[in-house]
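In these records, each integer encodes one residue's backbone shape. Here is one protein:

___
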Amino acid sequence: MNAIDENGHDIEYRFKEPDDPFQLLFLCAMWMTDFDALTVSTLYFDKPMKDHTLMQAIARANRVTSHMVNDVIKRNGEIIDYYNVFRNMKRALADYALGSGDKADDTPVQEKSVLFKLLDDAIEQGNGFCRNLGIELENVLETWETFRNIELFDQYANKILKKDEWKKEFFVYENTITSLYEACKPEILVGAARPLVFVFQYLRGVIEALSIGRMWKRPKEEYLNF
């Protein structure tokens, strides 16, 4: 446990380093107070915890970072609860995380069934936004013809890019959908498929690529002031 590797790094340093292959740690005690590793994305609970100790443990996985975790920007953490710590988590959040005007039931912790409903609602609202612009995202799912779908994505992206507010609003929908989808893992991987999640994500990538391409085509003086 106290060994130093060939680079002079101990186990704590390696676990905090995002690119180190040391990615999984079984923790018996300690490392909860004053320990902060931004890329920790998942905690597995198999022992009783409560009050401030539980809140500190939750915080270990709840750091937001620009580092990619499995090729995804980390916007939230995930708690896998084998000990039914969730009941204590609600009490701890009521004591430490809620403001004086908040209700105890209005905690940021949600059952997965609630998150699934929020995800479906977000997809429906995002799809409705696109339909109002004349964009039928389901058309992409009708066929596996690659070149046809690439053309559709280009058409959709160019339509959204006609107005800056359309682009910003689409990004809000995509951010919400992606965040909720990540929060629903791993259960969502074995449930009903939601292919529109990936349609939103791919379309955002096309929009960003076209935006960068247009920026580089600007006159040099205009680009430098951008």
Summary: The helical segments are 11-16, 51-61, 86-96, 112-132, 146-160, 164-183, 196-216, 220-224.
